[in-house]
Specification:
- By secondary structure, this protein is of the alpha/beta class.
- The chain contains 20 helices and 20 strands.
- Strands 1-2-3-4-5-6-7-8 form an eight-stranded mixed beta barrel, surrounded by six helices. Strands 15-16-14-19-20 form a five-stranded mixed beta sheet, sandwiched between helices.
- Helix 1 packs across helix 2 (55-64) and helix 18 packs antiparallel against helix 19 (505-525).
């Protein structure tokens, strides 16, 4: 805080303005998926070694002397001039408060003239509306925003989710960029709630046509997570700190670090992206931004658009943000190749040639569902592009090639982490799901399923019939697992893990025990054995004897928020509960009721 008893600190503000002792520093903003630079955020600093070096202290002192608008305008001049002098690439993100922007519009600062003097085009400037209580004069601010936007200036909402930077301002301003507050980025790789918030912001931004920038990225894990969530851009200390002369880092180095991290994850048995992959398995991940045309645009103009963009095979026809058709390169060229067609129809509206029934897909459509629709729909098939929408509004297109590549990647990842016998998730997805449930902060139950007397059965009937028993157990457990709420995984052999969020999980466990016992009797009857819960087979000495059928033991642990610090302790508790269940004769459900500190410590394997 500025000491009110020492006005010399405030006098320094006036002197700074007179002596122009403000300086600029710049922090890069990275397009993550293209290894490209979006631009730099320009930040202001006071004199080196001065109490007013940091912007917080500087503007606090300025406000105390009612000089904050003058200081802010001077800061804009310094940042723009220095940005031009350094010949920095990309856009300049400039922090401007709503009040300073209003005064600038009244003639106190001509931003367009200042850009012209610096040799910068207005379309390279992005004004970040900084946090203030904007309610009293927001209506007056919008005309100033409209005038600047007409000149080519773009806008960003800074620190969305912090203070007054709320969704209502998003609706009013309709910014080209959204910069999320750093509190959403900190530790995001371990926090499902932060991931869901950022994922929701990205979904809204796609519909609004805005680019999301995640601020406050300080670790490689955070960078990887926001990238996997589909965030377009990132900014933070991990990429580069604000400096007077940016290093112009080779952004491909960061991409290489991300690739190395994913490779290390794969080698350690972790799925790249993990819980952070917000668009994995959905049509949104296939989205390509492409030009679109109105139904009234001429066929000749569409032909020229295809000529200018040789990579395009499909151009959507969109009327008031709603897709109404599609034009393909091959169809238009074929029509124009016929005698007199170009002369007759070139100037006519493209709706005459468009396919009025293109395949339109919502961005949340599962890729497997999309693949089935393409295979089954007449007139489309896997050789055609499709239109992707959000809440019915046009977003872009998807290609069949991208779909096939995405499905192949999903299958590879699933195969890496699925049990080959049951195709159920293996150890890595089980651990990941336990972590997710822990991060949710909601109670759940972990149930360890294991067979009793399975080895004699396996020896007597062979591994093929033993595999039938394991498949039977997998089907039985699956029948009582609610999709989207519970989780079932196969550790290996005859060991399974169930994660229950269903409230009636105890009753489900009892039914599992009963159904598995009945299934074993049926399985034995198929072998011609008596259905009395026993079977006869030769032991290892060649003597025939009667054995009990394999039965099921379930060891369960109730997990309350904050009780178990990690998935390792949960796994140990579930294993101990399973051991207690196996001590009982016949089918058994054992529920561990002791808290972790009440249970004796066990030697780790």
């Amino acid at each position: 805080m500025i000491d009110q008893a020492h006005p010399e600190g405030l006098d320094d503000v006036s002197e700074l303005l007179l002596r122009a002792e403000l300086s600029a520093v710049f922090q890069p903003i990275l397009w993550m998926h293209d290894d490209m630079l979006l631009g730099y955020e320009g930040l202001i600093r006071g004199p080196q070694g001065s109490p007013l070096r940091t912007p917080d202290r500087l503007f606090e002192a300025a406000r105390a002397r009612s000089l904050d608008i003058q200081v802010e305008h001077r800061a804009c001049q310094v940042v723009i001039q220095r940005f031009a002098a350094l010949n920095l690439p990309g856009r300049l993100f400039l922090n401007v408060s709503p009040m300073a922007l209003l005064h600038a519009a009244d003639g106190a600062l001509d931003l367009i003239a200042l850009l012209a003097e610096a040799g910068l085009n207005p379309d390279r400037l992005v004004i970040e509306i900084t946090e203030q209580d904007q309610g009293g004069f927001w209506a007056d601010l919008l005309p100033a925003v409209t005038r600047l936007r007409a000149k080519g200036v773009q806008f960003a909402i800074d620190d969305l989710g912090s203070g007054f930077s709320n969704l209502g301002r998003w609706l009013d301003l309709r910014p080209e960029f959204i910069k999320t507050d750093k509190m959403f980025t900190a530790g995001i790789q371990d926090d499902l709630l932060r991931q869901q918030i950022l994922r929701s912001i990205c979904d809204i931004a796609i519909i609004a046509g805005a680019v999301v920038v995640a601020e406050g990225v300080e670790t490689l894990d955070e960078l990887a997570c926001v990238a996997d969530l589909g965030v377009a851009c990132a900014q933070g200390y991990y990429i580069e700190r604000p400096v007077a002369q940016p290093y112009r880092t080779h952004w491909s180095e960061l991409s290489a670090r991300l690739a190395e991290r994913r490779l290390a994850d794969t080698q350690e048995g972790l799925e790249p992206g993990g819980a952070c992959d917000g668009t994995e398995g959905r049509a949104l991940r296939l989205l390509r931004r492409t030009p679109c045309v109105a139904p009234t645009v001429s066929n000749e103009a569409v032909f020229e658009l295809f000529r200018q963009h040789p990579e395009l095979h499909t151009i959507p026809v969109v009327d008031d943000d709603v897709p109404v058709g599609a034009l393909t390169r091959s169809n238009l060229i074929e029509r124009f190749s016929l005698p007199y067609q170009r002369e007759l129809y070139g100037a006519k509206p493209c709706r005459l040639f468009m396919n009025a029934a293109p395949l339109i897909i919502d961005m949340h459509t599962p890729l497997m569902t999309l693949s089935r629709w393409l295979a089954e729909s007449e007139g489309h098939g896997l050789v055609h592009d499709f239109i992707i929408t959000g809440q019915g509004r046009y977003l872009g297109i998807g290609t069949s090639q991208d779909l096939l590549q995405a499905l192949n990647l999903l299958q590879q990842r699933a195969a890496q982490h699925a049990n080959p016998l049951t195709q159920l998730p293996g150890n890595v997805p089980i651990d990941r799901q336990v972590k997710r449930f822990l991060a949710d902060g909601q109670p759940f139950a972990v149930c360890y399923a294991d067979l009793d007397d399975f080895k004699p059965f396996n020896d007597a009937f062979g591994y093929r019939r033993g595999d039938d028993v394991i498949r039977l157990l997998g089907r039985t457990l699956s029948a009582y697992t609610v999709t989207g709420q519970d989780f079932l995984g196969h550790i290996g052999g005859d060991d399974f893990i169930l994660l229950f969020r269903s409230r009636d999980w105890r009753e489900r466990c009892r039914r599992i025990l009963d159904d598995f016992s009945k299934g074993m009797i049926q399985l034995l009857a198929e072998q011609g054995q008596a259905a009395d819960g026993c079977y006869e087979a030769q032991d290892r000495r060649g003597e025939r004897r009667r054995y009990d059928l394999p039965t099921l033991s379930l060891g369960a642990v109730q997990v309350e928020p904050g009780v178990y610090p990690s998935h390792h302790q949960i796994a140990q508790a579930a294993s101990e509960a399973k051991a207690q269940a196996k001590k009982q004769a016949g089918p058994c459900l054992y529920v561990e009721r002791r808290q972790p500190e009440q249970r004796p410590a066990t030697q780790a394997a």
